[in-house]
Write a structure and sequence with these properties.
- The complex is a heterodimer of chains A (452) and B (83).
- Chain A is 33% helix and 25% strand.
- Chain A has 452 residues and is an alpha+beta fold.
- Chain A has three domains: 100 residues, Rossmann fold, CATH 3.40.50; 70 residues, 2-Layer Sandwich (Dna Ligase, domain 1), CATH 3.30.1490; 237 residues, D-amino Acid Aminotransferase, Chain A, domain 1.
- Chain B has one domain: RNA polymerase II/Efflux pump adaptor protein, barrel-sandwich hybrid domain (OB fold (Dihydrolipoamide Acetyltransferase, E2P), Beta Barrel).
- Chain B starts with a strand and ends with a strand.
- Classes of the chains: A alpha+beta (452), B mainly beta (83).
- Chains A and B meet through strand 16 of A and strand 5 of B.
Chain lengths: 452, 83
């Protein structure tokens, strides 16, 4: 096992990894930017090392600085968390080259996960259903029109180099495609440095279901059940739960088996997530593989009892995977609310500032992953995710009741947060029935352009 | 009559950007004539960008912060002489 791990991230996920290290008797090293000198992860780690100025590009995204830091402190391995360098093939390769273990998938896995067109081609060859789409990247309108005629409207235009839901447009007919294609191309070029687009058939009002997978170096793969991630705003997940109220046991088995097949097709290693879209007729389609630990991993942990971060570390140290889904003592229901420092009343405008009053919830069935503390000043430079509140109970209704109660206890002021929105959602009749699709959030917030 | 001086201030704390990407030209320079609603710069707060828009027609007479500098809520960014 590793003696020392450098945690190449900040915020709640840095704490999550540091806590796992502490329980495994592994020394942890926190990295931080000049804007994060007062962050909680520095207090909990065994050692800390500054990796550069406030702007992420110069610190948390600076491969050279992070690897130099790992060498300096003598860390045998690096855990990248999520975001930042977690899915950068170049980072995983640089770690390998310098003799440091990258706790995560192989560089080849990361390369493929980042190349959606190739990933879909491999999945189709492996017999995994994919959404009908352009065979490769497109930059030419006439070609786009031809493809859309074949697959049928509505279609989705996505940036080949995009991610995180950015740069996606839905066109309902040819006229709209003619209008939007050039704009989408320019946006893709500006945002991702790559003008190439790809087009796929748009599934109307789907559910977003993903399967957690784990794989060892010998090719043993297990799935750990699904996560329901349908409640999103602008393709950003807000509420996740496990299991999904939308799956039958038979559908779960079929999707889980497909997720394993998808992971096997790319020789996947370590923890990952296979994302599917599920239509109203229970047809499911592969979307992508997320080659990292995900924000919403706690709902899987609570319902399976498996600590996914510890498993990532164990597998990277050469551990074997000797269990399958059927061996798990799976039980109960877990729900996660992602609490952001954003004002849901003002179009989710960010809400930076100092936390003057902080009163976290507690009690039976409550897990809180957060880097907040009273007096903490949120840096303006980083993501607005400030806490993940997770509830667990034997039934879905029980988990909703606990979440509702925990949200009512949670005070973070004077910042604006998404807590009031979640309190309303917990009372919503269709949420309580488990009856929703990806358009659900529009019951609560208008669809409008950002801050114009 | 002296031209009317209009101040453009930060709507919240954030990092100020004078240009849309590192390789492009700045949105505006001192001496530029600008129109109401024209984009003058960007403010990035917790990874969300908002456009700083021009409140009136006029001329840019001062740009106070450097590109990529952190601003506090209500910091002065531009001074415009209305036309």
């Amino acid at each position: 096992m590793f003696k020392k791990i450098l945690v190449a991230n900040r915020g709640e996920i840095a704490l999550r990894v540091i806590r796992a290290c502490r329980e495994l008797d592994i020394k942890s090293v926190a990295v931080y930017s000049e804007a994060d000198e007062k962050s909680l992860h520095l207090k909990l780690a065994d050692e800390r090392i500054c990796i550069g100025p406030a702007m992420s590009a110069a610190s948390y995204l600076n491969i050279e600085n992070i690897i130099n830091a790992a060498e300096k402190v003598g860390a045998a391995a690096v855990h990248p968390g999520y975001g930042y360098l977690a899915e950068k093939k170049e980072f995983a390769e640089a770690c390998e080259d310098r003799g440091i273990v990258f706790i995560g998938p192989t560089p080849e896995n990361l390369k493929l996960a980042g190349d959606k067109i190739s990933a879909k081609r491999i999945m189709a060859e492996a017999g995994v259903a994919v959404i009908e789409s352009s065979p490769d990247g497109i930059t030419n309108l006439d070609k786009a029109l031809g493809i859309c005629k074949k697959i049928g409207y509505p279609v989705m235009i996505k940036a080949s180099g995009g991610g995180g839901g950015r740069g996606i447009r839905i066109c309902t007919d040819e006229e709209m495609l003619r209008e939007d294609f050039a704009i989408a191309k320019a946006e893709a070029g500006a945002a991702f440095g790559n003008e190439e687009l790809y087009i796929e058939k748009s599934i109307e009002n789907p559910r977003h279901i993903e399967f957690q997978i784990l794989a060892d170096r010998s090719g043993n793969i297990a799935h750990l059940g699904e996560r329901e991630c349908t409640i999103q705003r602008r393709y950003q997940k807000l509420i996740e739960e496990s299991p999904s109220p939308g799956l039958t046991a038979a559908l779960r088995e079929s999707m889980g088996e497909t997720a394993i097949r998808a992971a096997a097709a790319v020789k996947y290693f370590n923890a990952g997530t296979v994302e599917f879209l599920l239509d109203s007729d229970d047809n499911f389609y592969f979307m992508e593989i997320n080659a990292r630990i995900q924000v919403e991993h706690p709902v899987t942990e609570l319902t399976t009892g498996i600590d996914l971060v510890k498993e990532q570390i164990r597998l990277s140290a050469g551990g074997m995977l000797d269990y399958s889904y059927d061996d798990l003592n799976r039980r109960g229901w877990a729900i996660e609310c992602r609490i952001n420092a954003e004002d849901p009343e003002r179009n989710f405008l960010p809400s930076p500032g100092t936390v003057e009053t902080y009163a976290p919830p507690g009690g039976f069935g409550v897990r809180l992953d957060t880097h907040l503390y009273q007096g903490y000043e949120l840096p303006i430079y980083y993501d607005s995710l400030i806490a993940k509140l997770i509830s667990f109970d034997l039934t879905r209704q029980g988990a909703i009741s606990i979440m509702k109660r925990a949200l009512s206890e949670f005070v973070i002021s004077p910042l604006k947060t998404t807590i009031p929105l979640y309190r309303r959602i917990m009372d919503d009749p269709s949420f309580r029935k488990g009856d929703f699709d990806t358009g659900f959030i529009h019951k609560f917030v208008a669809e409008e352009d950002e801050f114009d | 009559m002296a031209p009317k001086r209009i101040e453009v201030r930060a709507p919240m704390s954030g990092v100020f950007f004078r240009k849309p990407s590192p390789d492009t030209a700045a949105y505006v320079e001192i001496g530029d004539m600008v129109k109401k609603k024209q984009v003058l710069g960007l403010l990035e707060t917790m990874k969300v960008y908002q456009k700083i828009k021009c409140p009136a027609n006029g001329e840019i007479v001062a740009i106070l912060p450097e590109n990529e500098s952190p601003l506090k809520d209500d910091d002065l960014i531009f001074v415009i002489e209305a036309s």
